[in-house]
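Morning, I've got a small favour to ask if you have a moment. I owe you a coffee for this, so here goes:

…
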Amino acid sequence: MNNRKKGYDYELKAIDYLKNRGYKILEHQYRNGIGEIDVIIEKDEKITFVEVKYRANISNGLPRESVTLKKQNNIKKVAQSYIMSEEVKNKDFTFDVIEIIGVNEITIEHIKDAFM
């Protein structure tokens, strides 16, 4: 399976996980001229920008470790653009990471406020 298809499939697993926990999905694979955010969610008047990371195992480290400072800064720029283009007002914003590990049996960890 190619990486783009694999990433999409695991983003869908993350979306199911989030929906089951009461989050409203605002966007999936939000793209603009700056970059992409995997999932944008809302709950309790707070909008959260979510980066989904998957690895089959942790032999090369945890998936969350691949959300580098450079990646974080890019996500922030895309988020700022989203906020302006959607004219979002009076909301709090956070940045989370959904970490998925495994092949046949997966574990999902929702890392809230993963970066600022």
About this structure: The first strand starts at residue 24 and ends at 31.
